[in-house]
Amino acid sequence: ATGTPMLELNNVHTYYGHIHALKGISMTVNQGEIVALIGGNGAGKTTTLRTISGMMKPKSGTLTYMGRNAAGVPAHLIMQQGMSHVPEGRRIFPQLTVRENLEVGAYTVGDRKVIEQRIQEGFQFFPRLKERENQLGGTMSGGEQQMLAIARALMVNPKLLLLDEPSMGLSPLFVEAIFDIIQLLNKERGTTVLLVEQNANMALGIAHRAYVLQTGEIKLSGKASDIAKDESVRKAYLGED
Ligand code: ATP
């Protein structure tokens, strides 16, 4: 972590109609960091990612990505500036093969050679996908689909990767594999990661810093190792009493 802010939210409020989902969120993600965003059901984790990636527009507050205003900037333009969002529930294309899914992920990349090179890089990170290159996405296991969703997001060579609950519904072995890859991406490529997780233990294990979200507000923030030791966090999110 270099301490250079890549993403900054300041007092961000986001609504679904009359539902006030984010009630003044302020947070920073520095270049080179893995930042975890944890919290219970309905806390606003997904909404925070949607607001950052341009899927939703905040009603007020400021959102800055790479030094520029990003509030309400459409998702495809934000993506062109190096941000990639892997949404909850791994929305891969079930009727397309693994390779085709990756090609779709690269639709903003014009150069055929670059696309092929990135597909091969993806296969290096996820050898399991290489073995299944021509298999239909929808026929793969949950863990394999999550790998594909991440590999697809990597096709644009993102500077900032937003991951929404990558461990959801996966067996412990797959959870380990996914978290290993997130760490590898961060260490080897310097990809900055904002990670939303219900699996607080795992997320805090790989993150540098963390924010705890509760009913649309940041309740706690700090070094991930300190958050992991916090009594209230342990009780609420790490299943201790
Ligand atoms: P979970 O871990 O359960 O997915 P979350 O922390 O990601 O929860 P959000 O999905 O961001 O929480 O939801 C925040 C609040 O916004 C909740 O009260 C939720 O009911 C509400 N909300 C989310 N999506 C919508 C929507 N499409 N329409 C209306 N309200 C919504």
TrEMBL record:
GO terms for molecular function: ATP binding; ATP hydrolysis activity; branched-chain amino acid transmembrane transporter activity. Keywords: Amino-acid transport, ATP-binding, Nucleotide-binding, Transport. GO terms for biological process: L-amino acid transport. The keyword Nucleotide-binding applies. It holds the Pfam family ABC_tran. It comes from Deinococcus deserti (strain DSM 17065 / CIP 109153 / LMG 22923 / VCD115). Transmembrane segments: none annotated. InterPro entries: AAA+_ATPase (IPR003593), ABC_branched_ATPase_LivF/BraG (IPR030660), ABC_transporter-like_ATP-bd (IPR003439), ABC_transporter-like_CS (IPR017871), BCAA_Transport_ATP-bd_LivF (IPR052156), P-loop_NTPase (IPR027417). It comes from the Bacteria. Belongs to the ABC transporter superfamily. The keyword RNA-binding does not apply. This is Putative Branched-chain amino acid ABC transporter, ATP-binding component. Residues 7-240 form the ABC transporter domain.
